[in-house]
Specification:
This protein has about 200 residues and is α+β, with helices and mostly antiparallel strands. The chain folds into two domains: about 70 residues, Arc Repressor Mutant, subunit A (Orthogonal Bundle); about 120 residues, Umud Fragment, subunit A. About 20% of the residues lie in helices and about 30% in strands. Strands 2-1-3-4-9-5-6-7-8 form a nine-stranded mixed β-sheet. A hairpin with a 4-residue loop joins β6 and β7. The radius of gyration is 19 Å and the shape is elongated.
Length: about 200
């Protein structure tokens, strides 16, 4: 069988888990709502999964998704994954964890995320971190933490704005360093760390 992208694998895992819990597969709309993406995005993933032999062919009926492989074929002997909340664009003055910012879930299998740890996800906007391999449109998986080590990539709040930058604690200030020479470092004495970057998810 052809190899799956990480997003295709997560869509397949969601269909499997939903089917187990509800005794029927999800609709395309339910799957799109779960991931917080468009119907077309999910339809494209489903078409790719069918072409690669992981899903049965369509019979033009709702809830007709049927998985044709076992967990072992996905590289997991026993699948455990966390539903990571995706937080949308944060308006000035609005706390990042408020309900208005929630746009869906992204399932992440263990051991890519650790049991007992708390995570959230943000959609990356802009090009300030491209030299670290973080592109506009990526989904950043963040482990919640109020502290960080020098050199770690963090999500921080500065004057009600949320930013993703590399963290450095200097003698009398904090430097938030972009990974793009077209952007200047941010220097501050008052930054609140929300978490550290653990994974980047990209759709093609």
């Amino acid at each position: 069988m052809k190899e799956l992208t990480e997003k295709q694998k997560n869509v397949l895992l969601f269909i499997r888990k939903y089917t187990e819990e509800n005794t029927c597969p999800p609709t395309v709309r339910e799957t799109a709502e779960y991931f917080g993406v468009s119907l077309k995005a999910i339809q494209d993933h489903i078409v790719a999964l069918r072409k690669k032999g992981y899903l049965s062919e369509s019979n033009n009926k709702s809830r007709s998704l049927k998985i044709l492989v076992d967990d072992e074929d996905l590289g997991y002997s026993s699948v455990n994954f966390q539903n990571i909340p995706i937080l949308g664009t944060v308006a000035a003055g609005r706390p990042i964890f408020c309900d208005e910012n929630f746009t869906g879930y992204f399932p992440m299998p263990e051991p890519l995320v650790r049991s007992g740890r708390k995570y959230f996800a943000l959609r990356v906007r802009g090009t300030s971190m491209i030299n670290a391999g973080i592109l506009d449109g990526d989904i950043a998986i963040i482990q919640q933490s109020e502290t960080a080590r020098n050199g770690e990539i963090v999500v921080a709040i500065i004057e009600d704005s949320v930013t993703l930058k590399r963290f450095y604690k200097e003698e009398k200030r904090i430097r938030l360093q972009p990974e793009n020479n077209e952007f200047n470092p941010i220097y501050t004495t008052d930054a609140k760390i929300l978490g550290t970057l653990t994974n980047i998810i990209r759709s093609y």
